[in-house]
Amino acid sequence: MNILLLGKTGQVGFELDRTLSPLGTVNAPDRGTLDLMNEKAVANYLASAKPDVIVNAAAWTAVDAAEDHQADAERLNASLPKQLASYAAANNARLVHYSSDYVYPGDGNQAWLETSGTGPLSVYGSTKLEGDQAIEQSGADYLIFRTSWVYSARGNNFMKTMLRLAKSKFELKIVADQMGAPTPARLIAQVTTLAIHGNLAKGLYHLAPRGETSWHGLAQEVFHLAQENGEQLAMGPENAHPIPTSDYPTPATRPLNSRMDVSKLEQTLNIRLPDWQSQLDQTLSEYLEQQ
Ligand SMILES: NC(=O)c1ccc[n+]([C@@H]2O[C@H](COP(=O)([O-])OP(=O)(O)OC[C@H]3O[C@@H](n4cnc5c(N)ncnc54)[C@H](OP(=O)(O)O)[C@@H]3O)[C@@H](O)[C@H]2O)c1
């Protein structure tokens, strides 16, 4: 199997570069080799690489910056997936792509289903939704995994930011009314690999660990696990104070309800997704071992 992996330097791409390797030849150009902003360069690269499977882990992921860089976010999150899907449709290839909980409107407290109505609140969310819709309408064989709150032992993410802050701050105020499931990049890569290997039926799937928490709950668990691992922190879980989103204004609006029902993926792929706490424990331990 000839696999083209885009975004190999990102959180998810880094893990995919490792988990995909038993499936075939993984060709993973970095930004220096292929600038994904350049449509012509992407077309030329596809024509010469001739992939059987394209795994697109590249995206514009800077949610707040997207508000002021709409055209760039649009290219990376909407027109690139459209271009990849149109290549896949014309060349009998499979496209694997990642989407976001930020395509949902964030109201209520029920977990979203893949069939739920969308209603993005930000440029990032809108451009991700455009990408999903372009893929769905392309006629290509595709898998879209909608995931949430991605973190890993590498890259910039909430877990690492919280750990860094807890070493110098005595107290932190953290948003407690946005609910979702923190998803390790490695879990996304592992499930993607199973899905490609198992020829998972074309479609859109939610991919996140089981359970739910808030950013505040996640931070408390980070502090708790870090202390259990012997980390010297200036503060503990009890010094993390819950605040509403309205007390932490950001350029882009975030959904309050990012809960996603993962039963479609579990049933179709015949797997059981782990809970978010055990995944955090593993990822945090891995990060601390690297220090
Ligand atoms: N992060 C989250 O919380 C989150 C939540 C829900 C869904 N998702 C989705 O999950 C997927 C993976 O996210 P992630 O967190 O792994 O992303 P990430 O760490 O931000 O990585 C993005 C990747 O895209 C590459 N890229 C960006 N612009 C490029 C360009 N012009 N040319 C070539 N490469 C370019 C980056 O390369 P450089 O290293 O060179 O910049 C990097 O490899 C994305 O589809 C994202 O929308 C993420």
Estimate what percentage of residues fall within beta strands. 15-25%
Q: What ligand molecules are bound, each kind once?
A: NADP nicotinamide-adenine-dinucleotide phosphate
Outline the biggest β-sheet.
6 strands, parallel
Catalogue the unreliable spans: none
Cα shape: globular
Structural class comes to alpha/beta
Total helix count? 10
Brief account:
This protein has helices spanning 11-19, 39-49, 63-66, 70-91, 123-137, 158-166, 185-197, 215-228, 263-269, 276-290, and strands spanning 2-6, 25-27, 53-56, 94-100, 141-147, 150-151, 172-175, 179-180, 183-184, 203-206, 213-214, 240-243. The protein is α/β, with parallel strands linked by helices and 291 residues long.
Task: Provide key terms for this protein.
291 residues; alpha/beta; 6-stranded parallel beta sheet; two-stranded parallel ribbon; 10 helices; 12 strands; globular; binds NADP nicotinamide-adenine-dinucleotide phosphate
Explain what the structure shows.
The chain has 291 residues and is of the alpha/beta class. 41% of the residues lie in helices and 16% in strands. The chain has helices at 11-19, 39-49, 63-66, 70-91, 123-137, 158-166, 185-197, 215-228, 263-269, 276-290; strands at 2-6, 25-27, 53-56, 94-100, 141-147, 150-151, 172-175, 179-180, 183-184, 203-206, 213-214, 240-243. A 6-stranded parallel sheet has the order 2-1-3-4-5-10, sandwiched between helices. It has a two-stranded parallel ribbon with strand order 6-9. The chain has a two-stranded parallel ribbon with strand order 7-12. The model has no long low-confidence stretch (mean pLDDT 97). It binds NADP nicotinamide-adenine-dinucleotide phosphate (NAP).
